[in-house]
Amino acid sequence: MPNGCGSVLGAMQLTLYAINRNHKGAATGEEEPVEMSKAKTHINSTEKTEKKAQNSVANQVEQTTQAGGQWLPAASC
């Protein structure tokens, strides 16, 4: 029984391949890659912002620790 099912499915697969072997696929426009690049840029800028915030907090904690546990506000620009 399993060999019979496998043979039928294999024959169907070969038939579908023979029918679709010259098919070029869906036409892709320039809009989709542009949208993807915009999304990647947004993600990258968000990650950079998060890293800056984490580094800022880490620097404040380090400054506080170095000052013997007393809070010393960072100099503003």
Describe this structure in a few short sentences:
It contains two helices and no strands. It is mainly alpha-helical.
Map the helices and strands.
Elements: H1 2-20, H2 31-66
Region (Disordered): 26-77
Biased composition (Polar residues): 54-68
Keywords: Sugar transport, Transport
3D architecture notes:
The structure is a single chain. With 77 residues, the chain is an all-alpha fold. The chain has 2 helices and no strands. The protein is elongated.
Fraction of residues in H or I helices? over 70%
Name the average pLDDT. Answer: 75
Count of extended strands: 0
* Number of alpha- plus pi-helical segments: 2
Organism: Cocos nucifera
Region (Disordered): 26-77
Keywords: Sugar transport, Transport
Protein name: Putative bidirectional sugar transporter SWEET1a
What key phrases describe this protein's structure?
mainly alpha, 77 residues
